[in-house]
TrEMBL record:
This protein's record includes keyword Transcription regulation: no
GO biological process: one example: proteolysis
Record keyword DNA-binding present: no
One example GO MF annotation: peptidase activity
Name of protein: Spore protease YyaC
Keywords: Hydrolase, Protease
Length: 204
């Protein structure tokens, strides 16, 4: 499989492509019962940087067994606590396999794309923050254009773009868990997802 895969989130079958990619990448890891951690990075204080915790909120009711979640709207993982969270993960779990999820900036024609790579991501790179690289693999959603004044760009990112990416990526993760371990509890995912979307829409 390619080391870097770019998906168009607007394609109808995008969640299933994410599922197939993740299932292939996780196949060997799942056999070893190695803990798999979804590390959703970002903060709800910035629209453009809220992709990670939004995804965390959408999948928190379905992660179980070998899957562990860090980063939700209530308990976000961001620049100020990332190092502490990584230390906690490494102390609590033996040889964890981390799927790092974050928003990123890119070219205007790539806004809305999802990038899956076999390498760590660099949180806060757009803001020139010196944070540790994290993730055995990474999933990033391109939420806006890169260039100058990244802080302002993230603050002025469309909520629709972020919500759409969060929805597609979370559905891809849902189908990944359903395909790899399966559980009756996952049948409630769509109901939970719709409730979360309605609550967030009501607040915006």
């Amino acid at each position: 499989m390619e080391d870097k895969i770019i998906l168009d989130s607007m394609e109808i079958g995008c969640p299933y492509k994410i599922r197939d990619i993740l299932c292939e990448k996780l196949e060997d890891t799942l056999k070893t019962k190695r803990p798999i951690i979804f590390l959703c990075i970002g903060t709800d204080r910035s629209t453009g940087d809220s992709l990670g915790p939004l995804i965390g909120n959408k999948i928190k009711s379905i992660v179980k067994n070998n899957f562990i979640l860090y980063g939700t709207l209530e308990y976000p993982v961001h620049a100020k606590n990332l190092t502490k969270v990584l230390k906690e993960i490494n102390q609590k779990y033996i040889n964890p396999y981390i799927i790092a999820i974050d928003a990123c900036l890119g070219n205007i024609q790539n806004i809305g794309n999802i990038v899956i790579e076999d390498k760590p991501l660099s949180p806060g790179a757009a803001m020139n923050k010196n944070l540790p690289k994290v993730g055995n693999i990474s999933i990033t959603g391109i939420v806006n254009i890169s260039g100058s004044l990244e802080f302002m760009v993230l603050q002025n990112t469309r909520l629709y773009t972020v919500m759409h990416l969060a929805d597609v990526i979370s559905r891809g993760i849902y189908h990944t868990i359903l395909k790899t371990i399966g559980t009756r509890n996952l049948s409630n995912f769509e109901i939970a997802l719709n409730k979360i979307n309605k609550k967030i829409s009501a607040k915006s």
